[in-house]
Predict the 3D structure of the following.
Amino acid sequence: DIQMTQSPSTLSASVGDRVTITCRASQSISDWLAWYQQKPGKAPNLLIYKASSLQRGVPSRFSGSGSGTDFTLTISNLQPDDFATYYCQQYNTFWTFGQGTKVEIK
Amino acid sequence: QVQLVQSGAEVKKPGASVTVSCKASGYTFTDHYVHWVRQAPGQGLEWMGWVNPYSGGTKYAQKFRDRVTLTGDTSIGTAYMDLSGLRSDDTAVFYCARGGPLSIDYDVFDYWGQGTLVTVSS
């Protein structure tokens, strides 16, 4: 099974900050990597697919990069609506999620 | 617009079974895989399996293979998740999610149901 490891687990930031979340796969997954945002009591919402492609309707302050085993999600100019938990997901072989990164208000 | 609407919360005793439904609308039900994902309280997301609504074919995560059955009813555009042998650590929110078109083996989950809380307690 492919394991996905995110860091950090929790990130404290302020509105307007630029934040970066990393995700590492236990083996190469090419660019078959997605990012989701989840708010408390809600279903996850797709932000990024194929490592760097922005899902329709997602603000351009979200961006993704990486390939192989190392990936990043960057949120530039953090907005109040962005405080949430973020998950990476590999879909190279079956589907596996990272353990999540909670972005909280500093 | 695409919507997945799940059935309501359930409370079950250990050893029982539960069925969660997921009604799809806004797209052709038989064109996309439907996946199921489990999220225990305060925990992360865990893929359980998918159903191909067109053929009825399924694929399950090894962890759930012995206890989960995924089906689809094309006449009403609804997918079902049956989980048997419930244990207290099955207490979780279960989500259905639309996967990719049937022509693509692996794809992301672009629409999700609202989630169904299943509580297992004696």
About this structure: Chain A is about 0% helix and 50% strand. The first strand of chain A starts at residue 4 and ends at 7. Residues 1 and 94 of chain A are 8 Å apart (CA to CA).
